[in-house]
Amino acid sequence: MSSEELRKKFLKFFEERGHKIISSASLIPENDPTTLFTSSGMQPLVPYLMGEPHPLGKRLVDIQKSFRAEDIEEVGDNRHTTFFEMMGNWSLGDYFKKEQLNWLFEFLIEELKLNPQKLYVSVFRGNKEIGIERDLESVEIWKDIFKKNGIEAKDVDFAEKKGIDNGRIFYYDESKNWWSRSGAPNEMPIGEIGGPDSEVFYDFGEELKRHENSKYKNQPCHINCGCGRFVEIGNSVFIEFINTNKGFKPLPQKNVDFGGGLERLVAILQGEKNIFKTDLFIDILKKIEMLSGLKYENNMLPFEVIADHLRAATFIMGDDKGVAPSNVSQGYVVRRLIRRAIRYGQQIEIKQDLWIQEIAQVIIDKYKSVYPELERNAKFIMDNLANEGIKFEKTLEKGLKELEKLFDNYKGNFKNFVLDEKSLFNLYQTYGFPFELSIEEINRKRVQAGGTPMSKETEGNLLKLFREEIKKHQELSRTAAAGKFRGGLLDTSFKTRSLHTACHLLGAALRQVLGEGVRQKGSNITAERLRFDFSYPEKLTNEQIKKVEEIVNEIIKNNLPVSFKEIPLKEAKEEGAIGVFESKYGEKVKVYMIGKEDEWVSKEICGGPHAKSTGELGHFKIIKEESSSAGVRRIKAILE
Residue 493: which of 465, 520, 460, 527 has the closest Cα? Predict the structure, then answer.
């Protein structure tokens, strides 16, 4: 079954069960300060999971573009990618566990023809400290489902200690079987929603020994051990709790949020244990073979990193809210993806100029029928890839010079020369100089001095320490981000609603002052301030900033009403509503209007929520105007 057939089959299956098909949201999240990218299907639907009515009803199905930067180091293990497609079906306070688990199994067995003997499941073990019980309801549903398929399903606890133990249903704690955007229950901020989940795993039947001396060799094998025998193919999350000052409380509605990894299911359906050997990647890998003159089978790690990273970068830049490579925020991640791909290309000795563009074109051609925005934004993708390639060459020059300074400062015996992990991390962090290249240069210095390259053991220990430095830095960054972004999307307080409405007014004022060509490129709202990114090539003058403030405050002073209506996308466009049109024709959207009939100050496609009138907002003040990325400006503002 091809990836295209799987997409169609999944959407049709749930459409026949009363679900409305919705389009993938942007990879760049809107008004969500908790994350840089859309990393799950849940993120764009949070307001509806909390009770806001969705224009298309209580049953939805979609395939969501997703990206997880934390998986960058995992690429090359047969099943991890940074960019992926998440198949999702949703119940917004409608059906719950029984319908979901039965439908999911029916889809896997009847539609995809998977062997039920190959399927295993996990459920939430429970946590008395947070007052949430073991998910015995799901256990009983699963036992009944397996029994109907001729399987007596034994439930097993602590498989991580004793192995499979002839089990079929396994209990795990909140690190494995609890889902929220921020992770386990103790990591969830006040106002965050989440709940226990039940995952389905496919059994490949043996450990995948992609690497020598597998660390799982002498450990008990279980469905979550990570050895490669079992791979998670779907996760039904039961979003029914919200974290409050008094602990976890039930949400007004019980929701189902299913996420299934399209890449992993495609691999199984095409008889592969490795997602890179599927129709999703095969053309990309053939292109790398042609460019390098080498075979994928003999160079799996660099081939997979190049294929994954350039696919992810192409999708992020090719989004209608596309992000260019830069040194900050989302742009830094795009830069890191491209530069890692280039570095691995150097390892397999790809010499051609602009080769990353050639691979990007293969990716665009593969996906443009499903995601037409890639072709629409092809020039933006290609221009940025070319610029980044040139910049990285200069970066490598600077890094090499800095490395030479470190060599000059070293007075010992170069035969045994080794830099410490902090120096290597500083080269990486400050100059973007890859660890692997530092090691190559150190070994070159050792050989020149009559020595030998570092042993694999020494190199491995140094890499471990280097990664620990990266982890420390990431933890510090996360801590800083947590302090900076109190509140967030789930904070629907009066202040946040008011700032959301102020965002719409700011956009309208910018178009009035700078011209109708101004387009929103992203926003981020907390209870303290709003951040608004928009397309404009120049720094705003003090006079322009003052004029924008005056227009917004005049609208606030006039106390205009804020209203909304739910209409088809085509009608919204015809009426002149603005927004990033991620939806498809035929879908209903919410359009928020500020002002009076035929005298609208603002008319935008938006999920809400908002203030009831502009008079509630207070005084609008711009506190900062700066560059966000090439051709994009950023304004930060507050309400006093």
Answer: 527
If asked whether residues 272 and 290 sit together in one domain, one would say no
Does residue 402 belong to any structural domain of this protein? no
Distance CA(154)–CA(140), nearest Å, equals: 11
Claim to verify: residue 186 and residue 305 sit in the same structural domain: no
pLDDT in tens, 393-423: 887 778 888 888 887 776 666 777 787 888 8
> For residues 584 and 232, what is the distance between their CA atoms, to the nearest angstrom?
30
Q: ∠ CA 363-365-371 to the nearest 5 degrees?
A: 85
Give the torsion sign (CA, 540, 543, 548, 553). Answer: positive
Q: Contact at 8 Å (CB) between 514 and 544?
A: yes
Q: Can you tell me which residue has the tokens 């399927």? A: 119
Q: What is the DSSP letter of 410?
A: -
Residues 367 and 438 both lie in one domain: no
CATH assignment at residue 36: 3.30.930.10
Are residues 240 and 134 part of one domain? yes
Do 148 and 244 fall into the same domain? yes
Q: What is the pLDDT of residue 453?
A: 86
Question: Which residues 6+ apart lie within 8 Å of 357 measured at CB?
Answer: 382, 385, 386
- For 577, the 3-state DSSP assignment is coil
Q: Which of 214, 242, 276 is the last residue of a domain?
A: 276
Domain membership flag for residue 456: yes
**In terms of residue numbers, what domain contains 517?**
494-639
Total domains in the fold of the chain: 4
pLDDT tens for each residue of 286-344: 999 999 999 999 999 899 999 999 999 999 999 988 889 887 778 888 988 998 899 88
pLDDT attached to residue 567: 86
Q: Are residues 529 and 424 in the same domain?
A: no
Please name the helix (run of DSSP H) or strand (run of DSSP E) that holds residue 562, with its range, or none.
Answer: strand 562-568
Whole-prediction pTM? 0.74
User: Does 559 fall in a domain?
Assistant: yes
CB atoms within 10 A of CB 586: 10
The strand pair at 20-21 and 247-261 is best described as unpaired
| C-alpha distances in Å from residue 547, one per residue of 513, 543, 622 | 7, 6, 11
Q: State the Cα–Cα distance between residues 192 and 483, nearest whole angstrom.
A: 15
The strand pair at 247-261 and 520-525 is best described as unpaired
Dist CA 139 CA 124 (whole Å): 9
Indicate whether 480 pLDDT > 50.
no
CA atoms within 13 A on the CB side of 370: 19
Do 212 and 333 sit in the same domain of this protein? Answer: no
Residues 439, 566, single domain; the answer is no
